[in-house]
Write a structure and sequence with these properties.
This protein folds into 2 domains: 39-187, no CATH class; 222-312, N-utilizing Substance Protein B Homolog, Chain A (Orthogonal Bundle), CATH 1.10.940. By secondary structure, it is mainly α. Helix content is 68%, strand content 0%. Helix 14 (244-259) packs antiparallel against helix 15 (265-279).
């Protein structure tokens, strides 16, 4: 589930924290990094269970309407389509989702008011009304309805995103990415999917887990030598006045150039230039691009960059 872009972002933050705290060991920073990645997996499960929680809100409203002093025919014979949505049922009965919630003590209990707001917003949307009023609905239409819930309600909800970020500092950069992973998960459900339907794994494979650890460790181990190298390429700059985050980004890029033969240099350049655009100053991406380009040219001339397999692709 976790992408390498998110991994790079999390490694960057952990390196920044490590270099800002001289008392931290590399092992402690690695543990914090893995914890941060695992927290993204918590958010994935929380957001995946959201339609089940919203359906509970809808059901509560229906039950309250039935016991009004003078219930209408609509109150007594409510439209149950959303509550009985088969994909909501599959999520509710999914063994992996339920066991993860139980094991990690996850719940939506303290977010009742927000859930009510989300349902109110959801139920007023045209696609909700169209879905509820259709004569018949296929499984794929039920599924598309839930996909629309995420794309039209969850993804753009600043209030939900802010509330999630308040729960964990590790979720500050995860929300939109995790939403996209949840939508991909929803798309993979089929009408025949059982309670044992598999959800996404945290890491794509063991290689990505190793990449996460190695990128952090190798960048930190080589911090002093890479700083000296950067000084030699920034002679017209006071290294101490270069934004700390720019230095970290460039060090991580140097690590990928030299220590990860399967990652193409073009991928590394693009990824770290994008990080500089997003996390540093307005001019950082141009600066980082220029310095890394110079270093890369020299590295390739001296064969310090040795790529193999996928890494040979530019």
């Amino acid at each position: 589930m976790i992408s390498r872009r998110i991994i790079r972002t999390k490694v960057m933050h952990i390196i920044y924290a490590h270099l800002s705290n001289s008392d931290k060991s590399i092992q402690q920073s690695e543990q914090e990094l893995l914890y941060s990645v695992n927290k993204a997996y918590d958010l994935y499960h929380l957001l995946l269970a959201l339609p089940v929680e919203i359906a509970k809100i809808a059901e509560e409203r229906i039950e309250r309407a039935k016991v009004k002093k003078m219930p209408s025919q609509e109150d007594l014979n409510p439209n149950m389509r959303f509550i009985e949505n088969p994909l909501v049922g599959q999520l509710k009965g999914n063994k992996e989702l339920s066991s993860y919630f139980e094991e990690h003590k996850l719940n939506w209990i303290n977010h009742y008011e927000l859930l009510k707001k989300l349902y109110q917003q959801f139920s007023e949307m045209d696609f909700f009304k169209e879905y509820m009023n259709k004569e018949t609905v296929s499984y794929n239409e039920h599924k598309k309805f839930i996909e629309n819930f995420y794309s039209a309600v969850v993804v753009p909800s600043e209030e939900l995103e802010e509330e999630m970020e308040e729960l964990s500092i590790y979720w500050n950069d995860d929300y939109n990415f995790v939403c996209s992973m949840v939508i991909k998960t929803i798309k993979k459900f089929k009408e025949s999917s059982s309670e044992s339907h598999r959800l996404m794994n945290l890491y794509k494979d063991e290689e990505d887990l190793q990449y996460t650890k190695d990128l952090l460790r190798k960048t930190l181990v080589n911090h002093e030598s890479q700083q000296k190298e950067l000084i030699s390429y920034t002679k017209n700059w006071d290294i101490e006045r270069i934004a700390m985050i720019d230095n970290i980004i460039m060090e991580m890029a140097l690590t990928e150039f030299t220590a990860f033969p399967s990652i193409p240099v073009k991928v590394t350049l693009n990824e770290y230039i994008d990080l500089a655009k997003y996390y540093s100053t307005k001019k950082s991406s141009t600066f980082v691009n220029g310095i890394l380009d110079k270093i890369l040219q020299d590295y390739q001339t001296t064969e310090k960059v040795k790529k193999a397999g996928r890494g040979l692709q530019s």
